[in-house]
Amino acid sequence: MQVSKPFFKPADIILVICVAIICFVLFLPNLFGQNSSTVAVIYKNGKEIQRIKLDSVSESYEIDLHAEPSAILLVEKGRICYKHAECHDKLCVKCGWLSKVGDTAACLPSKTLVVIEGESSTDEPDIISY
Amino acid sequence: MILNLGEKTTIIKLFSFSIFLCLIFISFYGCNKKVTPYKTTNLAMGTVISQSLYGDNALEMSKTITNEIKKLENSNLSWRIDCSDVNRINSNAGNFVKVDNCTLNWIEKSLDVSKNCGGVLDISIGNLTRLWNIGSEDARVPSKQEIESALESIDSTAISISGNNIKCAANQKIDLGAIGKGAACDRISEILDESNYKGAIISVGGSILLYGQNPNADKWSVGIRNPRGEANDYVAILKLDKCCVSTSGDYERVLEQDGVAYHHILDPRTGYPSKNEFVSVTVVCDSGVLSDALSTACFILGYNDSLPLLAKYNAQAVFIDKDFNVYATSGIRNSLNITNDSFKLVKG
């Protein structure tokens, strides 16, 4: 009677585990290494003028957009806002802090705009109706 | 090097399992990774325009959409720009003016809504909106006499249409501010149709076009802004298929004078900003013009008086009042998820 050999030898199983570990390690950057940082993109007169990695900000600082009317941004770690604007309704200042992907504040009179970009969370809505 | 049968078998096994495991990891990674749209944001039509495009040639499509919005503003909608249809109608008040098919279609729809909402939405409101001019540097609270004078000119039944020609009464000025952003959504939807585009979210100020299929979920999700929070704070999420969504709220464009806040949604019956218990209304329907027009009309009418109007246009709506009560029409209640505990769903 011919005894059939097992398909897997102990050495095969060790090899398969090694390959699995190698595959997993190779895919780790894709699974967890996505760039989850948020970037504030600043526009003036329809053109992008600056990008700020908000997670990399160590100390708060102000940015004068040199716009007419005047508009000044305040940048802190993880967030940004219009601190002061000379526009008549101050809607930009009232927008408050921007920190989540998709958050937007605009100062129409000064033709300036700040948008938060980055990898959005699945829990957040695709858009906000305002 | 010559391999024996056992070595060959081991290599084949190893190779096969390597591929198998790689496929598993690739599948796992692919299933979890969101499709990222091409996004762009700019200013036009006196508001913020944001585009999220899920399809081919997104950069080109984005430019096409931006150019079309600017064209609509310049050629059709803006009363400030000399050659626009609206400006020409106003400048030639009392005489017929030939207009673009789009302008004609939007004015016809607006007049239809006016007729069915008891005149709370009225495009012949131009004299009154210019008097208040809320949102501009010249905004002010007009005198009672000025308001009474402006009210005398408001009557949408005095607007005549003959073919592609439109005429308003000699003392009137039309203003398409209440439907302009929704109109832009409708035009963009046509452009996306022409390209058989996969999916897109286009926000034109308070009006949003949800187009095609969301590649990351069964439906699109729209946050309803917290009317008493910051601009990017939302209180509820609506899960929706392809449609248009417009919100009217008392927090946008406000004039503050002598400690009183005057919002921009004027009631054509009184001449003053609409006053009732509601602070925001979000309307969902197939057409951008209608969702935009209805959100303004429903904001003025309030929940109960809006129901027949919404039913007539097969539209759904979410109302939020000053006490943070949320009212949703029956057709949308199951799609609504309130995410802020301070807000409570009371009627649907």
Helical segment count of chain A: 2
What kind of assembly state do the chains in view correspond to? heterodimer
Give Rg of chain A in angstroms: 25 Å
Strand content of chain B: 25-35%
The top level CATH class name of the largest domain in chain B: Alpha Beta
Mean pLDDT of chain A: 85
Summed up, the domain count of chain B is 2
Integer average pLDDT of chain B: 92
What is the count of helical runs of chain B? 9
Beta-strand segment tally of chain B: 17
Helical coverage of chain A, percent range: 10-25%
| Proportion in β-strands of chain A | 25-35%
**What structural class should be given to the helix and strand makeup of chain A?**
alpha+beta
Key features?
heterodimer, A: 130 residues, alpha+beta, four-stranded antiparallel sheet, three-stranded antiparallel sheet, 8 strands, 21% helix, B: 348 residues, T-fold, nine-stranded mixed sheet, 17 strands, 25% strand, globular
Detailed description of the structure:
The complex is a heterodimer of chains A (130) and B (348). Chain A has 130 residues and is of the alpha+beta class. Chain A has helices at residues 10-32, 91-94, and strands at residues 39-44, 47-53, 61-64, 71-76, 79-85, 104-107, 112-117, 127-129. In chain A, the strands form two sheets. Chain A has a four-stranded antiparallel β-sheet with strand order 2-1-7-6. Chain A has a three-stranded antiparallel β-sheet with strand order 3-4-5. The mean pLDDT of chain A is 85. Chain B is an alpha+beta fold. Helix content of chain B is 36%, strand content 25%. In chain B, the strands form four sheets. Chain B has a nine-stranded mixed β-sheet with strand order 1-2-6-7-10-13-14-15-17, with helices on one face. Chain B has a three-stranded antiparallel β-sheet with strand order 3-5-4, covered by helices on one side. In chain B, strands 8-9-16 form a three-stranded antiparallel β-sheet, with no helix packed on it. In chain B, helix 4 runs parallel beside helix 8. The model of chain B has no long low-confidence stretch (mean pLDDT 92). At the A-B interface, helix 1, strand 6, strand 7 and strand 8 of A face helix 1, strand 1, strand 2, strand 8 and strand 10 of B. Strand 8 (127-129) of chain A pairs parallel with strand 8 (220-225) of chain B, so a sheet runs across the interface.
